[in-house]
C-alpha cells in the first residue's frame, strides 16, 4: 500500500475544486502534496489534532512537513465532540495569532470528523478564511472531509455555528485507519453505506456483501469503499455546494440521528451509530409512505451486517427527541423536512412529514429493542 | 425627504448582488423593502441593535415589520466595540436558537458598524449562513455595510474572527443620522473622504468643499456623499469580492488605524478618528516615497476640514504600535503590505514598505502634535 496505489479524485467546484488523495504512506509525503496544492511555505502552518490521534501520527506529519521546508506549529485538543465548542475554537484562534498565522497560512486537520469540523471552522473564520487541508484518520471522516461543511456545536444544538469552507486538499492516508477502535470502524462504515443507500443501490449491496472485509480493515476493500463513498458525496456536493436542495439527501438518518446524540448527551452515541438508527427509522417511514416492499427489512440487514445499532433503548424520551428535532436545522419555515428512502439507493426530500408519523416510528424502534 | 427621494444602487456580485437604498423615511417601509428583496415572512426575523440606537429606532422598525406581516424578535447589545466579542456573539446565537430562527430567517443589523459586523457574523455563521439585512444608522456604516466583511474582535487583534457574508439588502434611512453625536458624524465622514482619497480626486475635493454642509448633516449633501461613497466602494468590491488584491486599497489608513485603536484600548478612539490619523500617516509616507508634491499637506487640509485628528499624542508608544501592526491581517508572508497614496484619488498597494520608514512617520506625527 505505498504511494503507487494512491488514487486521486477531484471535487468539482469551479475555482474551489480540490483533490482527494486516498492511499497508504501519504503522511510521509505530505509536504509534496501541499506544495502541489499550492500551499506556500513562507507562512506558518498550524496542525490541529486530538489527544487520541496526536500521539500516533502528529510527530510524523510534523517531520514530513518540516523536512519539506514548511514551518509548523501544532495544537492538540481533547478527543471527542466536547471539543467542538466556541471555547476550544477561541483557544485555537489565540494559538494561531500567537504563532503568526497570516492570510497565506494553512490549517491542517489531523484526525476524525470532530477535528475536521473544528479546525475547518477556525480556517473558515480566521482573518475571514485561510487555507484548509484535511488529513482524515477515521473512516467517518471520508464523509465529513468532503463538502466543506465545518462547524462547532452550541449547547442547544449540534453544528449550529459554522460556515461552508472548502479545503485545498484532502490527504487520506489509509494506514492511519489501522489504529481505529472497532467501534469507530463500525460507526464510520455507517456513513459509507449511507452513500449507497441514498444514491447507488449497487454500492449499498457491495458494502453489505463486503461487510466482513470492511470490518477487518482489508486495504483493498477499504480503499474502494472510501473512494466510492467520497466520489458519491463529491458528485452531490458539486451539484449543490451550499445545500439549497439536492445536497440535503446527504442528511439521511441525520434528523433523528442528531436528536439521539443531543438527548443521550453528546458522546454517548458515536455519530455513525446515531445515524444508523436514524437510517433505520427513515427506512421504516419510507416503507410506510409507499416505498418499495422490503425497504425497511433490507436496510436493517445492511446496517446489522456492519454491526450497527438499528433500535432505540426503551428509556429514551420520545418527546425529548421530538423537541430536539424541532430545533434542528432541517426545519424550515415551520415545516418538517425529512429525507425518506423510496427504495435502496434512492431517497426523496419530503417536506410534508407529519410529526405523529415520526413519533410512531420512534416508538416502533423501541419495540424492536424489546423483541431483539 | 420622503420615499420619493430614495436612491437605489446595486452592488454587482453575480448571484450575490444586492441593492442599497438610501433616503428618508425608509424605516417605516421596511417590510416592503424586505419583501422585494425576497425575505420570506414564514420564518422569524431577529433585529440586533445596541442600547444607544434601540431606544430611538427599534420600536419603529419592529412595528413596521410586524405591521407588514413579519414575526420579529430583537436583541439589544451594549453600544461600543466591546460588543464585538465571541461572548456577545454566543449570546446572540442562543437568542436566535431560542427564537426559532431557521435557514429561511434573516438577521437585521440596526445600528452602526459594530452592530453590523457583529450581527453579520451571526448571520454568516448561524446554521452556516442565513440572510442578512443592514439598516445603518451612522455615517461610518455606509462603508461597513457595503462589501460583506463581517467580524468580531479577538483580544489580541481586531476583526480577527470573521467571514465574507453579503447582505440581501442595505436600507439606509438618513433620517436616523440626525441623532448622531457630532463626534460620530466626523468619524463617519473619515470613511466618506477615504473613498475619494483612494479612487476619485473629484469626490475628495467635493467632500472638502462641502465639509460644513456635511458636518451640519444637510440632507442633500449627505445623500449625495453617502451614495457616492457607497458607489465607489461597491465598484471596488464588485471587482474583488474576497480581497485578493484591489480591494486592499479600501484599507487606506487602516494598518496604523487598527494599531492605534488596539494600543489606545478599543473604544478610546472612534474607528474613523483612528483611520484619519492613519490616512495622514499614509499621505506622509506616500509623499516621501515620491508621491505628488503637496499630497500630505492637502490630505491634512481635507481631514482637518472635516474636523478629524491628524496627529498622535506624544505619549503613544511607538513600539507598541509597530507590534500591533505586525499582528495585523495586512501582513502577508512576512512582508509589510501598506496602502500608500501616490496622489489625491490614487493609491498603490506597496508590499516593500520598510518598518523604519513607518516608525519615522509615526514619530513625525507626534512632532506635529507638539507644534499644533
From TrEMBL, chains A, B:
Pathway: Metabolic intermediate biosynthesis; chorismate biosynthesis; chorismate from D-erythrose 4-phosphate and phosphoenolpyruvate: step 2/7. Its cofactor is Co(2+); Zn(2+); NAD(+). It is found in: Cytoplasm. Keywords: Amino-acid biosynthesis, Aromatic amino acid biosynthesis, Cobalt, Cytoplasm, Lyase, Metal-binding, NAD, Nucleotide-binding, Zinc. GO terms for molecular function: 3-dehydroquinate synthase activity. It comes from the Bacteria. Residues 188-330 form the 3-dehydroquinate synthase C-terminal domain. NAD(+) binds at residues 113-117, 137-138, 149, 158, 176-179. It is an enzyme of class 4 (lyase). Zn(2+) binds at residues 191, 254, 271. InterPro entries: Dehydroquinate_synthase (IPR050071), DHQ_synth_AroB (IPR016037), DHQ_synth_fam (IPR030963), DHQS/DOIS_N (IPR030960), DHQS_C (IPR056179). Residues 76-186 form the 3-dehydroquinate synthase N-terminal domain. It catalyses: 7-phospho-2-dehydro-3-deoxy-D-arabino-heptonate = 3-dehydroquinate + phosphate. The keyword Translocase does not apply. Binds 1 divalent metal cation per subunit. Can use either Co(2+) or Zn(2+). It holds the Pfam family DHQ_synthase. Its EC number is 4.2.3.4. CDD domains: DHQS. NCBIfam families: aroB. Belongs to the sugar phosphate cyclases superfamily. Dehydroquinate synthase family. Catalyzes the conversion of 3-deoxy-D-arabino-heptulosonate 7-phosphate (DAHP) to dehydroquinate (DHQ). This is 3-dehydroquinate synthase.
Amino acid at each position: 500500500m505505498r504511494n503507487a496505489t494512491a488514487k486521486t479524485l477531484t471535487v468539482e467546484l469551479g475555482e474551489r475544486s480540490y483533490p482527494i488523495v486516498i492511499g497508504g504512506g501519504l503522511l510521509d509525503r505530505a509536504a509534496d502534496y501541499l506544495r502541489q496544492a499550492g500551499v506556500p511555505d513562507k507562512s506558518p502552518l498550524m496542525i490541529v489534532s486530538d489527544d487520541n490521534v496526536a500521539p500516533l501520527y502528529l510527530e510524523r506529519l510534523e517531520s514530513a512537513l518540516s523536512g519539506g521546508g514548511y514551518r509548523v506549529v501544532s495544537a492538540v485538543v481533547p478527543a471527542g465532540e466536547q471539543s467542538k465548542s466556541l471555547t476550544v475554537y477561541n483557544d485555537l484562534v489565540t494559538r494561531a495569532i500567537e504563532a503568526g498565522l497570516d492570510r497565506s497560512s494553512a490549517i491542517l486537520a489531523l484526525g476524525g470528523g470532530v477535528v475536521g469540523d473544528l479546525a475547518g471552522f477556525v480556517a473558515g473564520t480566521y482573518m475571514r478564511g485561510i487555507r484548509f487541508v484535511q488529513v482524515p484518520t477515521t473512516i467517518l471522516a471520508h464523509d465529513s472531509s468532503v463538502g466543506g461543511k465545518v462547524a462547532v456545536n452550541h449547547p442547544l444544538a449540534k453544528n449550529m455555528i459554522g460556515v461552508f469552507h472548502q479545503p485545498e486538499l484532502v490527504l487520506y492516508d489509509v494506514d492511519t485507519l489501522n489504529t481505529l477502535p472497532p467501534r469507530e470502524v463500525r460507526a464510520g462504515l455507517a456513513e459509507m453505506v449511507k452513500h449507497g443507500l441514498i444514491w447507488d443501490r449497487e454500492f449499498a449491496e457491495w458494502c453489505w456483501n463486503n461487510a466482513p472485509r470492511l470490518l477487518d480493515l482489508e486495504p483493498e476493500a477499504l480503499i474502494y469503499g472510501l473512494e466510492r463513498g467520497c466520489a458519491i458525496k463529491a458528485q452531490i456536493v458539486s451539484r449543490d455546494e451550499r445545500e439549497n436542495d439536492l445536497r440535503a439527501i446527504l442528511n439521511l438518518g441525520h434528523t433523528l440521528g442528531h436528536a439521539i446524540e443531543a438527548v443521550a448527551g453528546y458522546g454517548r452515541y458515536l455519530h455513525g451509530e446515531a445515524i444508523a438508527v436514524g437510517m433505520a427509522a427513515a427506512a421504516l417511514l419510507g416503507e410506510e409512505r409507499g416505498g418499495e416492499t422490503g425497504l425497511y427489512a433490507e436496510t436493517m440487514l445492511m446496517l446489522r451486517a456492519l454491526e450497527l445499532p438499528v433500535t432505540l433503548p426503551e428509556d429514551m424520551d420520545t418527546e425529548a427527541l421530538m423537541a430536539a428535532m424541532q430545533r434542528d436545522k432541517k426545519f424550515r419555515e415551520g415545516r418538517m423536512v425529512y429525507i425518506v428512502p423510496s427504495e435502496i439507493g434512492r431517497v426523496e426530500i419530503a417536506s410534508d412529514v407529519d410529526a405523529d408519523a415520526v413519533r410512531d416510528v420512534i416508538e416502533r424502534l423501541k419495540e424492536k429493542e424489546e423483541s431483539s
